[in-house]
Write the structure tokens for this entry.
Amino acid sequence: MRSKYARWLREGLVWLLIALAAVLVVDQFRKPALPPTFISTALQTLDGESVDLAQRSHDRPLVVYVWATWCGVCRYTTPSVAKMAEDGQNVITIALRSGDDAALNRWLAKKHYAMPTVNDPQGQLARRWQVQVTPTVMIVSRGEVKSITTGYTSGWGIKLRLWWAGL
């Protein structure tokens, strides 16, 4: 009986490693090719705050989260990012093609999300950054992109990336 559990554990670890390798390969193909000007892009949140990515990531790593109100996968990732922002983590979000400022503010209020959000109503910023998948999570530390992942990411996955970037 003991060898049966050991075999299951071993097989489970092998499948976990295969899944991790697949996720990393897919991320490499889907990650955006950010332009050299990415870090100096002038951004303004819905509440009028100017955002300097380099300055904001100087003291502690910054989560740059590109999402959309219409994105099915974002429905699972956005609450984790909103909770991180609520808890004081260093977060900036970019809402991709999610309507005008008023519509986006209404959607955020309806969901009870209080996170710093930049509206990209026509997707111009996403095109410039070559972001083609929502959600996309970028971790920036000291003005340098340390990690990019696309698709579903758990809150713990984002926190792990933040911790890794802070080393």
